[in-house]
Structures are given as structure tokens and as C-alpha cells.
């Protein structure tokens, strides 16, 4: 098995409700996969299934034996009772040399914060420190759960450039979770659109092809950002059921959307 | 040297304080104060069972605490009432059941006050051996699981994702808690064990810049409380267990004082007196 992680028809049920179901996902070394979808569509849950934080209620999740994960969770709050410096936070899950710590912090632009107390960091600084922590351990799979939350477009572009660099350097797989449904990282090999199940997936199209986006984001962005066009053959109704293109309604669409023959307009209800 | 009861008390108290400090840090970081209380109260049930089955009290207390902690973990996963209500229920029920059981065993004459508030002055050489044996084992195991336990305290998901097996570390931690409660019951009693766990750790928080430093400082603060408590109880003839806790509390209050400013004031006062 070459891929780093494999989800095979994986689903998770909690309190009698399917958070996500029927997900097939593989990530190979050096591959960047971007997971997109509206709020509550199961992006984080899918990542947790892939990482083994949650066990699938159905289907399978497999991880390569030598998998070394660098994880940036969506939320992390450090209680004030914990005396924790940035340096110690970077060494949280494994040993690191002083050089590795300095390099990782410098790379994410927070080189001066090594001895700062974690509680005194601003939101943006903390996000960068978490990023530094994930890359400092030289993972072969980097999992980033909404790393651009609260970051402006310039910051987002810089972050994407860095992720692409790190991928080159470590040849690691990258699972990137984003709530932006249309603009994704250009270096993404595959976009997976999730809404309780995989709605559609494919490669993103270059922003540079679209004059309007190029004017909006500038030339540098056109290298880094890309547009993803959704091709759905079904619509999600407000009550969670699914309406297919032929008008039939069902509770779920098994394996839907992955190889839709006819491109359809993207419509998320609610 | 250990022939003197006061020396034995000092040696035993120091042993318990050194183990309680680092574990107390985790209780504070994980907000387990009430959980610790519940375990400590259930220790009395362990005492009753020890008399009933004629087994070693420390061993019996350890087993009951370990069992209750596993039961709590299981109940919290599926219970419909909130965690703190569950803890409150179990905490006082365990204490009450323990007291009732002891009362039923009319053939057993026990010094209940000794179990509730500790009887450090009656510590035997065998007690010291148990405290240092169990304590050393606890510290060694804690060192082994330290990285995993601390990482999962910061973020369970992060620890799990990066392969540190936090669930295993958490279960071991529960056993360590049970051990510490079993060996410290004789020193401060079931009602005050949590104080010895929490207060030194809380004192250390204000003075430390890292988790390892805080664990060591908590052990030092606990040791200071034991020494201070024992000598003040000797001086003013106060109950020893509560005296230790009072000294720990005083240290905690002192840690809130502006220590640097205090130094400034002292040098200022000195200067004034020199001038005058």
C-alpha cells in the first residue's frame, strides 16, 4: 500500500446522526489534497477519521505503518493553568533540536517568539506557532484544519507558498481543509468537496485564466490561488436529504458525484 | 534515626509531598480537583473492605480507588447526568457507604479521625517503606508517560493524531492517582488529600515557566508545607494533617504576593532604617 492514508467508504455516526458517510479518500506522498465544504459538512470529521482520532462506524480507515503526522487542529485553547512557552509547545509530541525549533519558527515568521508564553500570543501568532510545530517534526503527512482562518489574503498566499515549499522539501502528503468553496490553493492536486459525503472532486482550474480574479487578487495570487468549479448532480435540501438531478429525493446518495457524467451547477441549499 | 516518631513523620510526609506535587499539577491542568476528591473519599470504603477481608489497608484503598476511577470513566461516557453531578453523587456516597460499613463491623475498633484527617505521628517503618516504594514506582511510571500525558493534557486530538496513544497514558494516570491516594491517606487523611495534591501545584503555577519546572516546584512547595506543618503542630499542639494543609495554604497566599515588590520594600525599609 503506497498511499499514506486510505479511507474506504468510511462513515461516522454520532448520537444517531451520520456526521459523514461513504467517504473514499487517499493521500499519496507528495500529494496535496484540499477538502472543502460548507460549515458542518464533515470536513474535520473526515480528517479525524483519516488520522485515527475517531474510528469509523462503517467502512475502513488505513494508515501506512511509518506515517508521521504533523497536525494543526482547527481549535486549540491553552488553559492559563498550563505554564507553556512556545519552545515547549513545539516539543510537545517529540524531541527536537534547538536548531529545528529555530528553523521552524523562522520559517513561519515568528522567530522571535521562541521564549514567549503561549497565553500571551495573539490569534495570528498562535496560528503560526501551531504551523511551525507541525512542520518542525518533519512529517510525511501534514494535516491542516483551516489554517487560514482569520488570515487576510496576503497571509493566505504566503501560507500557501510555504506549504508548497514544504511539500517539495519533505515530499510529504498534505491534507488541507478550507471553508472557502471556490478559491483553493493552486498547488492542490485534488479538491474534494464534502457535504456529509463526497459531492464531487477534481483538479482546480488556474486563476490566471480568469481575468476577473487576476484583477481582484493581483498577479502573485494568480500563481498561488486557483478556482475550483463544482460539478454536482444533486442538491442538498435544508432537512439534510438529497435531491438528485432527475428530481428524486433520497436520504443519502451512495458514492454520488465522484464521477458525474454531466456537469451540473453547484447548489447548496441553506 | 527512624526510631523517633517525629523523624518518621517527617520522612513519610516528605515522601508523600514529593510524589503528590507532580501529580497535583496534572489534576490542576486537567481540572480534575473534584475527581481527586471523589477518589479520596472512596478510600474510606477501601478501609472498610480491608477490615472485612483482613487485607492490607493501603492495598485495599488502592484497589477501590482504581476501581472507582475506571467506573467514573465508564459512567462519564454514557451517563445522562452531568459530570460534576455524577462526581458529587459518587464522592459523598462513597464516603457515606464507607462510614456505614465501618459502623456495621462492630468487632472492629478504628480511629475514624485518623482515617479522615490523617495520623502522621503514628507512621511506622513499614508505612515509610510502602510510601517510598509506591512513591518511587509512581514517579518512574510518570516519567515514562510524561510526554504522552502532557501532550494529551494540552490536546487529546493532537496527541492521538501524532501517535502518542493518549488513552493509554490517561488510564495509567488514573492508577497513579489511586496509588498516591492510598499512600497519602495516613499522612493527611481522606478529607485533606486533595488539598495536598492541589495547593502546592497551584502555588507552583505562579512561580514557574514550564510544566516540568512546575512539577518540581510543586514537590518543593509540598515538602515545605510538610516540614512547616509538622513543626507548627509540635509547637502549638495542633492536629498535624490540618496543620500541613494550613501551611500549604499560607505558601499559596504568599505566592500571590508581589514577590519582587516585597524585595523592593524590604531594601527600601532597610535603607530608611539605615538613614534613621
UniProtKB/TrEMBL annotation, chain A:
Molecular functions (GO terms): ATP binding; ATP hydrolysis activity
GO BP, one annotated term: response to zinc ion
Region (Disordered): 248-270
Gene3D superfamilies on file: P-loop containing nucleotide triphosphate hydrolases (3.40.50.300)
Keywords: ATP-binding, Cell membrane, Ion transport, Membrane, Nucleotide-binding, Translocase, Transport, Zinc, Zinc transport
SMART domains listed in its UniProt record: AAA (SM00382)
Domain called ABC transporter: residue spans: 5-229
Signal peptide start and end residues: none
UniProt cross-references to PROSITE patterns, sorted A to Z: ABC_TRANSPORTER_1, ABC_TRANSPORTER_2
Family note: Belongs to the ABC transporter superfamily.
Name this polypeptide is given: Zinc ABC transporter ATP-binding protein
The species this protein was found in: Pseudovibrio exalbescens
UniProtKB/TrEMBL annotation, chain B:
Principal location listed in the UniProt entry: membrane
Domain of life: Bacteria
Keyword Cell membrane annotated: yes
Alphabetical list of Pfam families matching this protein: ABC-3 (PF00950)
Subcellular location: Cell membrane
Secretion signal span: none
Keywords for the protein's UniProt record, in alphabetical order: Cell membrane, Ion transport, Membrane, Transmembrane, Transmembrane helix, Transport, Zinc, Zinc transport
GO terms for cellular component: ATP-binding cassette (ABC) transporter complex
TM region positions: 6-29, 41-74, 86-108, 129-149, 169-202, 214-234, 240-259
GO biological process, one term: transmembrane transport
Membrane topology: Multi-pass membrane protein
Record function comment: Involved in the high-affinity zinc uptake transport system.
Homology family: Belongs to the ABC-3 integral membrane protein family.
Name under which the protein is recorded: High-affinity zinc uptake system membrane protein ZnuB
Organism of derivation: Pseudovibrio exalbescens
Source taxonomy: Bacteria, Pseudomonadati, Pseudomonadota, Alphaproteobacteria, Hyphomicrobiales
Amino acid at each position: 500500500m503506497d498511499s499514506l492514508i486510505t479511507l474506504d467508504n468510511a462513515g461516522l455516526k454520532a448520537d444517531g446522526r451520520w456526521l459523514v458517510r461513504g467517504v473514499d479518500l487517499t493521500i499519496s506522498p507528495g500529494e496535496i489534497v484540499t477538502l472543502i465544504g460548507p460549515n458542518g459538512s464533515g470536513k474535520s470529521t473526515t480528517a479525524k477519521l483519516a488520522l485515527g482520532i475517531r474510528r469509523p462506524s462503517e467502512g475502513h480507515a488505513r494508515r501506512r505503518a511509518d506515517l508521521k503526522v504533523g497536525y494543526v487542529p482547527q481549535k486549540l485553547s491553552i488553559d492559563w493553568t498550563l505554564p507553556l512557552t512556545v519552545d515547549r509547545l513545539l516539543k510537545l509530541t517529540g524531541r527536537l533540536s534547538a536548531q529545528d525549533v529555530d528553523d521552524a519558527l523562522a520559517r513561519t515568521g515568528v522567530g522571535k517568539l521562541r521564549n514567549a508564553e503561549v497565553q500571551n500570543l495573539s490569534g495570528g501568532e498562535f496560528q503560526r506557532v501551531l504551523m511551525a510545530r507541525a512542520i518542525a517534526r518533519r512529517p510525511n503527512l501534514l494535516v491542516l484544519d483551516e489554517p487560514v482562518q482569520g488570515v487576510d489574503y496576503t497571509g493566505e498566499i504566503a501560507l500557501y507558498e510555504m506549504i508548497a515549499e514544504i511539500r517539495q522539501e519533505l515530499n510529504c502528503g498534505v491534507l488541507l481543509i478550507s471553508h472557502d468553496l471556490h478559491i483553493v490553493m493552486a498547488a492542490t492536486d485534488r479538491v474534494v468537496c464534502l457535504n456529509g459525503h463526497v459531492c464531487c472532486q477534481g483538479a482546480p482550474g488556474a486563476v490566471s485564466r480568469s481575468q476577473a480574479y487576476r484583477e481582484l487578487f493581483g498577479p502573485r495570487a494568480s500563481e498561488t490561488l486557483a478556482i475550483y468549479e463544482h460539478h454536482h448532480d444533486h442538491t442538498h435540501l435544508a432537512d439534510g436529504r438529497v435531491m438528485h438531478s432527475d428530481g428524486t429525493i433520497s436520504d443519502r446518495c451512495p458514492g454520488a458525484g465522484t464521477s458525474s457524467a454531466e456537469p451540473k451547477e453547484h447548489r447548496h441549499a441553506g | 534515626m527512624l526510631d523517633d516518631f517525629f523523624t518518621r513523620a517527617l520522612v513519610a510526609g516528605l515522601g508523600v509531598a514529593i510524589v503528590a506535587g507532580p501529580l497535583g499539577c496534572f489534576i490542576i491542568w486537567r481540572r480534575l480537583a473534584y475527581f481527586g476528591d471523589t477518589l479520596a473519599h472512596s478510600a474510606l470504603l477501601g478501609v472498610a473492605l480491608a477490615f472485612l477481608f483482613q487485607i492490607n489497608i493501603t492495598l485495599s484503598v488502592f484497589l477501590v480507588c482504581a476501581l472507582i476511577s475506571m467506573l467514573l470513566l465508564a459512567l462519564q461516557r454514557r451517563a445522562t447526568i452531568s459530570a460534576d453531578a455524577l462526581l458529587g453523587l459518587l464522592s459523598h456516597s462513597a464516603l457515606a457507604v464507607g462510614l456505614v460499613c465501618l459502623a456495621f463491623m462492630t468487632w472492629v475498633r478504628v480511629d475514624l479521625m485518623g482515617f479522615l484527617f490523617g495520623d502522621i505521628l503514628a507512621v511506622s517503618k513499614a508505612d515509610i517503606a510502602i510510601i517510598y516504594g509506591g512513591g518511587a514506582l509512581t514517579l518512574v511510571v510518570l516519567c515514562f508517560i510524561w510526554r504522552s500525558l502532557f501532550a494529551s493534557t494540552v490536546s487529546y486530538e493532537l496527541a492521538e493524531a501524532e501517535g502518542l496513544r493518549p488513552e493509554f497514558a490517561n488510564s495509567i494516570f488514573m492508577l497513579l492517582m489511586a496509588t498516591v491516594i492510598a499512600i497519602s491517606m495516613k499522612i493527611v487523611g481522606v478529607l485533606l488529600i486533595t488539598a495536598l495534591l492541589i495547593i502546592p501545584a497551584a502555588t507552583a503555577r505562579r512561580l514557574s515557566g514550564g510544566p516540568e519546572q512546575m512539577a518540581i516546584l510543586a514537590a518543593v512547595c509540598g515538602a515545605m508545607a510538610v516540614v512547616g506543618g509538622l513543626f507548627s503542630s509540635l509547637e502549638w499542639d495542633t492536629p498535624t494533617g490540618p496543620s500541613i494543609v494550613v501551611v500549604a495554604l499560607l505558601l499559596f497566599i504568599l505566592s500571590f504576593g508581589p514577590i519582587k515588590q516585597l524585595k523592593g520594600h524590604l531594601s527600601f525599609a532597610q535603607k530608611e532604617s539605615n538613614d534613621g
